[in-house]
Structures are given as C-alpha cells and as structure tokens.
Amino acid sequence: INHNDYPREALLEALLRYLEESLATEQLAADTYHGILENITENDELHDEIEQIYFAELRSVEELTQLISA
Hints:
Blueprint lengths: L4 H35 L4 H26 L1
C-alpha cells in the first residue's frame, strides 16, 4: 500500500456518488418529459420537440447506467 491509495479511493467514491446523483436527475427528467408527452395531444410540432428532449434524456440515463456498472 502506498500513500496514494486512500485519496484515490475517496476520489472514486466521490465520482461514483456524482454519477449516481446525475443518473437520478436524468431519470427524473426523462420521467417528467414522458409525462408531458402524454398530455400533448393537439400540437404535433410541440410533441415532436418534447419527444426529442425525452429521447436525449433516455440516452443520458443509458450512458450513466453503463458508466456506473463498468
């Protein structure tokens, strides 16, 4: 064991917490946009725009999930 083991461990734990918090935020955003999409029925253009944001949030959720599980 060298003197750098503890700081590295602390850094890795902090990064993991950051990723987990980011994942929770992105999941909440995806859920929120999904709920909004369900309520937009009369404006196709607005629905399409919100849907693109929703898909971007889903991609972020997938990417963060992969980072955390790696």
